[in-house]
Model the fold of this input.
Amino acid sequence: MHNKKISDFIESSFAEYSDKILLADGFDKAFIGIGKNINGNPVAVYSIEKCINILVKQFEDEDDPKVDAVDFLESKVMGLDLGEFTPMFINTLA
Done:
């Protein structure tokens, strides 16, 4: 289950797409908003830096948690094509 605040935001701002917008499991704290993809569809947008920070905690027992976090994010999360509502991941200033 995703953060109720995120679900409420999507429902109130993008009601006609609320059942189509895909959210990345486990990355609620990295959610920064909704953007539009190349097709004009609204998609969930996540901060890459925040996603990495979340994953570093999960990989804390590994030899190099940050490298493992980046590898996992790039290959298992950002590398997925889930169709026209696939979430977007961006580098953020902060």
